[in-house]
Design brief:
About 80% of the residues lie in helices and about 0% in strands. The chain has helices spanning about 1-15, 15-20, 25-40, 45-60. α1 (about 1-15) crosses α2 (about 15-20). The longest helix has 19 residues, at about 45-60. The N and C termini lie far apart (about 30 Å).
């Protein structure tokens, strides 16, 4: 329920388009928490995927 409330708050503050762009940060935060909490190893694929996600978010924001 907390996530639902937070999502609705973000939608009101940032708008649907901007908030939806930030959904793509979920895999990045998952990798970070898996590394911190579960001691997962960060591989080159994780790093490349993170870079691609961040570049894609940057391009999406700049092309507005």
């Amino acid at each position: 329920m907390l996530c639902f409330v937070a999502w609705n708050w973000v939608l009101k503050k940032l708008g649907a388009v901007v908030a939806t762009n930030y959904v793509y940060l979920n895999p990045v935060t998952t990798i970070i928490f898996a590394w911190l909490i579960l001691a997962e190893q960060i591989t080159i694929y994780f790093i490349l995927g993170t870079i691609l996600i961040l570049v894609g978010m940057y391009v999406a924001e700049k092309c507005k």
